[in-house]
Amino acid sequence: MTETPDERSHFTEAVIQLGDKRDVVASTAIFNNQGIKVVDKGVAINKGLYGRLMQHKLSAPLEDSVVSADAVNGDALKRTAASIMDDVPFFGRLAADPASRKLLLNVLETLPLPEAMAFQLTVARDVRPEIFMNLVRTALVATWLARSQAILLSRFDLGMAAAAGLLHDIGMLHVDPILLRPAHKLNRDQRRQLYSHPLVSTTLVERHHQYSREVVRAVSEHQEYLDGSGYPRNLMGDAMSPLGRVVSLAQVVAAMFAPGRNAPEMQLSVLLRMNTHRYDPTMSMQILTLVQPQLDVLSAAIELLDDPVQLLGEIDAMLARLPLDLGNAPAVNAARREALATVAEHGAKLRRSLAGVGAMPDQLAQLGDSVQDESIQTELTLLIREASWQLRTLARETRRSWREQPKDDFPAPLRAWLDDVEAFVAKLAGPQAQDSVDAEPSVMALDAASTEDTPAT
Questions:
Q1: Whole domain around residue 129: which residue ranges?
Q2: Is 146 in the same domain as 161?
Q3: What one-character-per-residue DSSP string does 294-351 give?
Q4: What is the C-alpha separation between 267 and 282, in angstroms, rounded?
Q5: Contact (CB, 8 A) for 164 and 215
Q6: Residue range 217-247, pLDDT digits in tens
Q7: Is the pTM value of this prediction over 0.85?
Q8: Residue 138 burial by CB count (10 A; 0-12/13-18/19+): exposed, middle or buried?
Q9: Residues 273 and 318 in one domain
Q10: Beta carbons of 110 and 159 less than 8 angstroms apart
Q11: Are 339 and 244 in the same domain?
């Protein structure tokens, strides 16, 4: 795998941190790319070696040359998955009967785990536990989804689905760990790392013949969406593989249950119902049959927005203005016109999603006084935050589509619309902003990024 010095430093630093927790030794002599020995076989990897390792470009990836005591293995994966199913009701529902539970756990226990991949999972478990737990949650959901798609799937197929879910974000070990902090505003280099992490994961997985081409492809597609708004390749519809669709949905389901999220089942319900254009509709419906938002004991922790009906009306009014009337402005060339038409199409999909969940102004008017019910207010608050996030994404897409040059100005109607979106999003910002219904930790970081240099749509 080819890494930049910064990317090498992030993973090497994590390995050094692991060495502070348990024995990590060189399983073979470590050489640089000029054939000079850097570390002897059997030497303990610790802080004293960090500088030496970073001075050289190694001839082989570091994970191929080191081993750790108490490394992650099939039994450790099985025990972790079992604890998740015991502790989180939603995951318990993935396998409510003993036979289904046994099958899911056995699939994780027996999936292929080459030594280098086991070592990276060990680094994740002991140094970046938020990554490790998210990987295991994703593996459980991916296995369940794959099984639900075809009764005759073989154990091998289920194992490959589990592997794709388990390894989809292994590349996050090789990027700046600050990307896991939702409130951190990303700089240009951190955004580049964020958008490239599916490719890093793909490179790490494809090195091992134990994983099929379908697994490698699914890992590369885990941040793609059916409407073409994902990254890194903006795939659309059938361009995504069946297993890619599984992992794309599984990773966002798993991320909803990260520690600290309020009302995860309610947020997941809102996300899937508001994003029918992004995720496989059949699989989304299968997930929704398991979701029980009424049991979310943390829903009371969500800070309710004042006058949600008014806020949803403002969102609908902004969406209704798309496509923007730019007349015959000479600055609107063919490329910009096509890009703005795509933005308008995405805006129309968002309006349809709001209508589909009964959140359009005329639909809300029919609720009468019942709209004051706390449970309805909670759901409307989450709907507004998700719609606001998608509205902000539309604004970023518009800016990126328009600016052929960094200093390009916007026509007055376009500037007015962008200003309205910015003002609306700013109005919603507050203590609960981190609970907006987005996806995995890396996407939470994306949500805090500036409006420039977002991935192409």
A1: 74-295
A2: yes
A3: GG-TTGGGS-PPS-HHHHHHHHHHHHHTPSP--TT-TT--HHHHHHHHHHHHHHHHHH
A4: 19
A5: yes
A6: 999 999 999 988 888 998 999 999 999 999 9
A7: no
A8: buried
A9: no
A10: yes
A11: no
